[in-house]
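Homework-ish question, so no full write-ups if that breaks the rules, but can someone show me the predicted structure for this set?
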Amino acid sequence: MSITLSSASLPVFQTALTNLLHCLSKAEANAAARGFDANVFVQTRLAPDMLPFAAQIRIACDAAKNGTARLAGIEAPRFEDNETTFAELQARVRKTLDWLATVPAASIDGREEAAITFPVGRDKTRTMTGEAYLKHWALPNLFFHVTTAYALLRHNGVNLGKTDYLAGEQASA
Amino acid sequence: MSITLSSASLPVFQTALTNLLHCLSKAEANAAARGFDANVFVQTRLAPDMLPFAAQIRIACDAAKNGTARLAGIEAPRFEDNETTFAELQARVRKTLDWLATVPAASIDGREEAAITFPVGRDKTRTMTGEAYLKHWALPNLFFHVTTAYALLRHNGVNLGKTDYLAGEQASA
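A: Not a homework solution, just the prediction itself:
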């Protein structure tokens, strides 16, 4: 028994983004219940030199999308970073999930030892094998941005718990 | 080619905690440079109803320790949750890494389909296969707490960047 590269990546990316969507829905409902516009979340930051909520969502999506594309050795669609509303950020997550659903697992499997070169910061790259890239870059990067988005919502008083992040809609089941 | 359950878990847990230690060292140096006691980080929170920094570190350690023990079907050592200083929290991460280094990969491999039952909140449990438990609970749970600790440090002005979290000491290389 062992784990395939596709099963260790695609469903994990999909679950993380699906649970993120669940957290965004709860945040939207919470804003409505507390009587403010959910769009105020879009530009919130945890520190003045950290990226705002909108960027956390965009990069979470891109971590899954570009991570999958690199693992599969295919081109990912490029999304403009032009969302200005909470609804547009939700749409970006949905669009990313829609694309992930089109990637055949077979395009990823067998690429455990493939050399994957990816950008790190502005003018540097790193190269890792497919397996190392998934485990030591793509997954921690995705969870970093999903968790930071969660932390921003919690910091702003949204009624989320960790199981919303871990289990999504099953959290309340 | 495929990935083993041990190689998809142990080194990922170890890297995450090693990089966390790197972030803690930078936070300690940053506190010294800014002229305050690093122990003030211990009780900081991102929201009044979120767990403080100390708990984020403890649970990050336990996510790796208990996650590994469940995957391996062995007993994990139990650590008291009694750290009150920044240095004690660093020691807890080191103690966890020391224990992880003693777990043979062979005790984890082959348990992909093993039923793993684990606590969820106070009086509930869930059961997943070893593979699903790793991918959909243990890993996201570990990264959640490591990232929240990172976010707390950043929120308090510590000079960390994402590559400190992703690459640890190699971040500045």
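Now go work out the reasoning yourself. Hint: Chain A has a mean pLDDT of 96.
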